[in-house]
Amino acid sequence: MYGKFQQHLRDELQGIKDAGLYKHERTICSPQGAEITLADGSKALNFCANNYLGLSNNPRLIAAAKKAMDERGLGMSSVRFICGKQDLHEQLEKSISRYFRTEDTILYAACFDANGGLFEPLFTKDDAIISDSLNHASIIDGVRLCKAVRYRYENANMEDLERCLQEAQAQRFRIICTDGVFSMDGNVA
Questions:
Q1: Does pTM top 0.85 for this prediction?
Q2: Best CA proximity match to 164, nearest among 135, 129, 112
Q3: H or E stretch including 177?
Q4: Which H/E stretch holds residue 9?
Q5: What ranges do the domains of the chain cover?
Q6: In this structure, which long-range contacts are made by residues 94-100, counting pairs with CB atoms below 8 Å and at least 24 apart in sequence?
Q7: pLDDT tens-digit profile, the chain (189 residues)
C-alpha cells in the first residue's frame, strides 16, 4: 500500500518538475538585509522578505534577544495555549498596547498564525468579510477558515468596495479587511 502511494508522490513531484513549477529553496548564509549572501557565495538583492521595518537585523533588538536567550533559553517549547507566555512576552504586549493606545495586545510567532486565529473565532455565517483583492495570502487563508460570507473588492477601488458593502447589507457585521502595506508592490492601503 505504502509503496503504491510513494510511487504516486514521486510521479506527482516529477510532473511538477516537468512543468517547471518545482520550487528550489535558497540557502542564505548571511543576516537578513537588503543584500544577502547565498550558499554559493553569490550576493542577491532580497525583495521577498517581510523585514519591512528592518527589525530582524536591528543591532539593539539583536542585543536584547541575546540577553533574553542567556537569561531564559530559546523559547517556551510549546504553544502559548498549552504552556502560557513568559513575562517578557507580557511586558512587550503591554508596551505595544500603550504605544498604540489599545486595551490589549497578543503576540503571534507569524502573521499566518495571527490571521489564521483571528477570523474564525470572531465571525459566523451571519457576518460578511470584505477583503481587498491584493491582501496577503495569510489574510486570505484566515478569512477562508471562517464561516463568514466572503466578498472581494478590487485593490483600493472604493466604488467596488461600496458595491460589496451594499451586497452585504443584510449581514450582522460587515468587516472590511485590508493590508496596511501590500507586500507584493509596497503600496500603502
A1: no
A2: 129
A3: strand 174-177
A4: helix 2-18
A5: 77-107, 111-177
A6: none
A7: 678 999 999 999 999 999 999 998 989 999 888 899 999 999 999 888 878 788 888 999 999 999 999 999 988 888 888 888 889 999 999 999 999 999 999 988 888 889 988 999 999 999 999 999 999 999 999 999 999 999 999 999 999 999 999 999 999 999 999 988 777 777 787
CB 178 within 8 A of CB 133: no
Record the cell numbers describing residue 52, joined without a space.
519591512
Residue 157: CA count within 13 A, CB half-sphere: 12
| Residue 1 grid coordinates | 500500500
Lookup result for grid cell 472590511: 176
**Alpha carbons 114 and 68: distance in angstroms, whole number:** 23
Instruction: Indicate the SS3 state at residue 175.
Output: strand
DSSP bridge partners of 35: 45
Tell me if 49 sits within 8 A of 32, measured CB to CB.
Answer: yes
